[in-house]
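Kindly review both lines to help learners:
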Amino acid sequence: MNGGSTAGVRRTAHIDLSAFRHNLGALLAEDENFVLDARADAYGHGAAHLIPVALLAGVSTIRVSANQASIPGIKRSFLMTVPSVRRNLVGAWAYGLEGNATPVMTLSGEVVAVKRASAGAGVSYGYTHRLEEDTTLALIALGYADGVPRLASNQTSVLLRGALRPLVGRVAMDQFVVDCGSSTPTVGDEAVLFGDGGRGHPLASDWAARTRRSALELTANLGSRVARVAR
């Protein structure tokens, strides 16, 4: 299945600033001296978006990577590039990646091609998946070049047209395929890889477990083609 060029398509990580503030408020209520772990560009969430929010919320110390210490408008006195040995270092919970915290990131990709396929047809390169019945396939413009783990091949699902659809076949460099069954999505539809379970999205923690990594590693490895859009 070839969707042609994917230049200019939507690859978006929506960053929910209100969810981030909510998580920080809960953390500060328990420990007002915790250190926010914002290394690796806030683990892929966009430190330039989140650090000002954290400072306004009352977070006093933020741990960053060495190459992040020059974020515009941020006083260096608030940032630390060495480990804290005496204070609680918090990352995953602040970003809503564990426990009952609210997820901050929603990762989505655009449907760039749709086609009907017959039972027995192989999907993606190597044909690691063969269709058991006639179905509709949708091509999503996100791939391992964007940080979608190759181990997600035949292992995960996305939310598309109000239902969870299985990812079938191998994840390619720029795209992957989902099986839509009797549903027929439209080119331009949004497929959500992970986000807020309260909205029916798959969870980043589930994607992480199925691809043998932590949720922080999953989000931190998202590539530069994925636009971080704060809202």
User: Anything to note?
Assistant: The domain at 104-230 is CATH 2.40.37.10 (Lyase, Ornithine Decarboxylase; Chain A, domain 1). The chain is about 20% helix and 25% strand. The chain has two domains: 17-90, 104-230.
